TrEMBL record, chains A, B:
PROSITE patterns recorded: MADS_BOX_2
InterPro entries reported in the protein's UniProt record: MADS-box/MEF2_TF, MEF2-like_N, TF_MADSbox, TF_MADSbox_sf
Pfam families the UniProt entry points to: SRF-TF
Cellular component per GO, a single term: nucleus
Domain of life, per lineage: Eukaryota
Gene Ontology molecular function terms on file: protein dimerization activity; RNA polymerase II transcription regulatory region sequence-specific DNA binding
MADS-box domain residues: 1-61
PANTHER family in alphabetical order: SERUM RESPONSE FACTOR HOMOLOG (PTHR48019)
Cell compartments where the protein resides: Nucleus
Primary location: nucleus
Keywords: DNA-binding, Nucleus, Transcription, Transcription regulation
Entry protein name: MADS-box domain-containing protein
GO biological process, one term: positive regulation of transcription by RNA polymerase II
DNA sequence: ATCACTATTTATAAAAA
DNA sequence: TTTTTTATAAATAGTGA
């Protein structure tokens, strides 16, 4: 906008791409903030710029809350559960190995102590 | 904007709040899309409107990818890990109980078979 | 990266359909 | 709820510090 229309394609020039990204990110943040206030809504925005830098905004102080809520409400929960299962499976395998290699099942092993630090 | 400045506070009138939300969400989507194209960035936006309705957008077809990347890269990973630990801890307790109550440690138990279905 | 300027393009509030 | 209209408010591209 301004001084000529913008073509909707990737900006090749690195410098101007970064300038545009910075300006538009600022503008976007304002829009998101306004929407969350006016509409009394919970919002989370996550952006990875081309350089891999993380930008984020959340109307909650905890962006995780919105994300978690998302994870629970979307069909993509299948992916979420699949990831979770991998973690759990790994933990179970570790625990199994520990238990199977212990002499006395009743004394507290280090693995157990560690897991209960939580 | 237009026909008078907007006060930055929650719109009490339900109808006009919804109209404003709908319009601004549309505008926001466009902005986010433009930013992702111009800046060649990966973007995810999640909004829960007051009614609890989920609105989302992602420049990836899989919004989960951006979210997962977020989870791994942010400091809030502490929260993420804490949640994960709870799941793992529960799994370990279950597995421990199963293992501790088995007669023969070398035959395949049902719990193990189940966990390896993944 | 950010800030200022500013001509233009966009977004949108209000009203009505 | 969604769309159209349209007067205005906002956002921003290009430029230079």
């Amino acid at each position: 906008m301004a001084r000529g229309k913008v073509q909707m394609r990737r900006i090749e020039n690195t410098t101007s791409q970064q300038v545009t990204f910075s300006k538009r990110w600022t503008g976007l943040l304002k829009k998101v903030y306004e929407l969350s206030v006016l509409g009394n809504a919970k919002v989370a925005v996550i952006i990875f710029s081309q350089k891999g830098r993380l930008h984020e905004f959340s109307s909650n102080s905890k962006i995780r809350k919105t994300i978690d809520r998302y994870c629970r409400s979307t069909n993509d929960a299948a992916t979420y559960q699949a990831n979770m299962e991998q973690y759990i499976l790994e933990a179970i395998r570790t625990m199994s190995w520990i238990l199977l290699n212990r002499r006395n099942p009743t004394d507290g092993g280090s693995a157990r102590a560690k897991s209960e630090q939580h």
